[in-house]
User: Fold these one by one.
Assistant:
Number 1:
Amino acid sequence: MAAPTQVKTVTVDDGIELFYREAFPASAKDPSILPVVLLLHGFPSSSFQYRNLIQRLAVKYRVLAPDFPGYGFTVVPAARKYEYTFASLTKTTIAFLDALKVAKFAVYVFDYGAPTGFRIALERPDAITAIITQNGNAYVEGLGQPFWSGPQKAWADPSPENIKALAYLIEFDTTKWQYVNGAPDPSVIPPETYHLDYYLMTRPGNGDIQVGYLLDYKTNIPLYPQFQEFFRTRRPPTLAVWGKHDQIFVPPGAEAYKRDNPDAIVKLLDAGHFALETSLDEISSDILAFLEKNGI
C-alpha cells in the first residue's frame, strides 16, 4: 500500500523553487533507502500527468515527479534570468536529484522528458538503473508529421513569421487535441487535464517560454546518436510502452529502441499521446513487472 502522495518544493539551481510530487510505501521507515523511480513529464503538462501512476508505483518504490521550469507549479524568479532550454532543464533536474541525494534511479520519460532524461544519462551514465519510455523519443523516425513540420520550418529559418506560426501549438484546441486524439474513448479523459495545462500556459510570459522550448528542441536532434550509443553500449533495461495512435511521437520511434538494444521490450498500446489517461492499468502493471524482473 502506498502512502498518500505529498506535494513539496525544494530550492535548487540558484533560487528555483522546484515543485515535485513524492510517494512511497506506507510501511517505509526510511524512504531514502528505497529504489527510486523518476517521472519526467512533457509538453504541455506537469507532474500532474503522473497523479495516478505515482500511487501505483509507490507500493514498492520511492517515486519522484518534478515540474520542469515553465510548467506546473515550479517558480522561477524573474531575477534568475533563466534560459528555458533543454540544457537548462537537464542542469536543473540534476540539481533536484542532488538536493534529494538521489544517486541512482529508474527513469520514466515522456515527450520533453525524454531528451532531458537522456541528457542526464549522458552526464551520469551510472545513475540509470532502467528506462521506461512512454512516447519518449530518441530517433528521427519517431518525429510525427505534420506535427513537427512547423517547428522544423522554424528551426531551418527562425524568421518572425515562422516563429509566430508556432502559436497554434499553445492554443486550447491543440492542447485538448494532444489528450483526446487517438484515445480509444475520449470520454474517460478528465477535462481538468487539458484545462489545467492551458491555464498554466496562459500565465504572463509563459507562451513565449513554450515557443522557446519548441525552438530549442532542435538541439536534441544532434544528440540522438549519442543517446543511441548510450542504449547500445550500456544496455540499460528498457521498456517502451507507446500509444500507437500518437501523431507527435509515432510508433517507429518506439520500435527503433530494439535496434540499439535488442533486449528492449516494445509494446504498442491502443492509446494516444497521453497514454496514461486511458491505459493506466496496463502501463502500471507492465512497469512493476518489468522492474521486478530486472531486480529493481
Note: The chain has twelve helices and eight strands.
Number 2:
Amino acid sequence: MNAFGLIQIGLILSSTTIISSPQCNHLPLQQRKVIENSLRLLDKMGKEFPQQCLRDKMSFRFPTQVLQPRQKDTVGVAIEEILQHIFYIFSKNLTLAAWDRTVLDQFQNALYLQIEQLEACVIEKHTQHCWSKEVSRLKLKKYFRKIDCFLKDKQHDLCSWEISRAEMRRCLQLIDKVTRKLKN
C-alpha cells in the first residue's frame, strides 16, 4: 500500500472516532461521510461501465423495505448487514476484474472500518426488534445470494464484476439516502 493510501486510512480512522463514543450519537452524519468516500472509491476503482456488458445486465431487486424500519437502531443493523455482504462480495475471486488494486484495497478497508464501527453501536444499543431484524437479514441474504450466484454463473468474468460493482454502488446510494433522512 502506498503512502497516499495510508494517509487516507489514517484520515478515515481519525474521523471515525466519534462513532466509537458510548452514545454513538453522530452515527448518521459519520455514516454519510464514510459512504460518500466509499462511493468515490468505488467509482475510482474502475473505469466507465463497459458497453459490451449491457447485454448481461440484470435486476437484482434490492429489498428497500429493510432500510425503512420504524426504529433508528434497526436501520443501523440493516446497514451493518449490507456492508458485511458488500465486503464479502468484494473479497472474492477478483482476478478478472480490471480494477485499480490500490483503490480496491482502500475500498475494502473503508468497508471494514464502517462494519466495525456499526457493530460497536449496534451491540451497544441491543435492539429488541429481533423478528424484524431476522426478516430483514433473510431478505438481504437472498438479495446478495443472487449477486453471488450471478458472479459464479458468469465465472467471475469482467462483465459480471462490473454489473456487481454498479449494483453495490446502488446499495451504497440507498444507504446514503437513508442516513440523510436519519439526520433530519
Note: The longest helix spans residues 158-183.
Number 3:
Amino acid sequence: MLRRPAWQVFRQFVRHESDTVGSLVLERSMNRVQLLGRVGQDPIMRQVDGRNPVTIFSLATNEMWRTGDSDANQGGGDISQKTTWHRISVFRPGLRDVTYQYVKKGARIYVEGKIDYGEYTDKNNVRRQATTIIAALHRVLG
C-alpha cells in the first residue's frame, strides 16, 4: 500500500547533510500525513477567485482504548472511542477529478499528503484558522 517504508524515507532525509548556498542553509525536512478512515460527506468541488479548483471532503479517523484496571488480554473494562475529523483538500488535477467523481460518503479510504495551516475571513468578517490535509494520493478501500 505504501510506496516506501517510513524508515527508508527517514533514512533518506537523515543521510544527507545540509547544503549551503552562499549564506543560506538548505535543510531537509518532512511534512507527511497518513490517514485511514471513512469519508464523512460526498466531496464538493470549489473554485475561489478564478484560482485552480479544489475538491474537498471530510474524513473521520477513530481511536479506541480500554478503560479500567483489568488486563487488556482478559477483555475487561469499557471500550472508549474518540473520532477525529480531518478536512482533506485535493488540488492535483487528475486526482481531484477522480476524487470528485468516485469517492462517496461512507467509503473507507487511505490518504497520504501534507498538513497545512491557514487563515481565512468568514462571512461575518471574523478571521479564523483552518487546518487541512493537502492530499498527494489516496486509495479507496471499500
Note: The CA atoms of residues 4 and 88 lie 22 Å apart.
Number 4:
Amino acid sequence: MWKQAQSLFAEEEDEELQENLLYETDDLCSLSSTQRLYAFGICSLAGLVCMFLSMIVFAIPIKFAVLFTFGNMLAIGSTTFLMGPTRQLQMMFDPVRIYATSIYIGFVVLALICALWIHSKFLTMIAILCEICALIWYSLSYIPFARSIVSKVTIRLFDTEI
C-alpha cells in the first residue's frame, strides 16, 4: 500500500518536473522586451530579404526553392522571439492548426528534397506551389473564422469545398 502511494506521488512529481523543464527553456534565453523586438524585426527582415532574393532567381527553381523556403522559415521562426519557443510550438501544434502545421512542414521538407536531392525543376516548382498554399492555409488558422470564410467563398465561386 505504501509503495502504491509513493508511486502516485512520484508520477505527480515527474509531471511537475516535465512542466518546469518546458518553462525553464524559455528563461534560459531571457532577453529584454526591447531585445526580443529587435530580434523579431531582424529575423523577419532577413526572411523577407530571402523571399525577395528568391524572386530574383525565379528562373532557377532550385535556388528559388532554397531561398524561398529559408525565408519562410525565418519569417515564421521570428515570432519565437515574441512569445518564446514553448508557446510557439504549443500554438503551432494546437488541435485547431495541427493539420495545417503538419502539411506546411511536410511541403517545406518536400520542396527541399526536390531541390537539393532530386534536382527536379518541375517537382520543385510543384512543391513550392503546394508550400505556398499550405502557408496561406496555416496563416489563416491564426485569424478567427478565416478558414471557414475562405471555404464558403470557394464553395460559392467554384462549387467545390476545401
Note: Residues 2-28 form the longest helix (27 residues).
